Amino acid sequence: MGPRQYIFLGAPGSGKGTQATKLTKERSLEHLSTGDLLRAEIGKNSDLGQRVKSVIDQGNLVSDDLVLELLKANCDIGKKSYIFDGFPRNFEQAKLLESEVLKGADSQAIYFEIDLELLVERVVNRRIAPRSGEIYNLKTRPPKVEGKCDITGEDLIQRKDDTEETVRNRMNVFQETIRPVLDFYREKGALKTVDASGSESEIFTSLLGIVNSK
Ligand code: AMP
Questions:
Q1: Pocket of ligand 1 from Cβ distances under 6 Å
Q2: Is 214's pLDDT higher than 70?
């Protein structure tokens, strides 16, 4: 069997991106965030970027086909172990990931479970470093120097879709689409859940437990 693949599932702000960044530093894993890939296209002002910008700014989902193509162009399942972060977002994508990308590869889905009510404030206070991929929080994980990344010193930015109104829409989208995705992996016996309400290090410990098992 080829390298094992990880599928991180969780609401915006549940910590999956932070944990994925952390895990890739300790293990030879690649972090593949469809949100990051899409934002990079917007940054480049590519055709694709222009097509998806307003959808993303409103907090709605980009079409399944578009995201799938982007994902396929950016991974090589037979060679590397990936953390899929932000894909799949709905049942259709879960099926597409399996049939078009994983094709029976060894995979483990991990759900970052947390009460959505706790998340809006977390996301509104989130600031990111686009180049290093580091994720900060003004209240709970502030950078050492205000507005700058601890690692690269680059300017931190607030994602345009991290404003309160858009975040609330993104939470609704999540709530409406995630259940069948969780059922899909549960039925395959490929779902593990971590309590994402704990501290960053507690969540990381649970995650390592899963990654080290098997
Ligand atoms: P994220 O960084 O995962 O929060 O994604 C930011 C935004 O990118 C989402 O609100 C969607 O508009 C879009 N997006 C990311 N991943 C997907 C996906 N798998 N399917 C559809 N849209 C996506």
A1: 12, 34-35, 38, 55-56, 59-62, 67, 86-87, 89, 93, 161, 170
A2: no
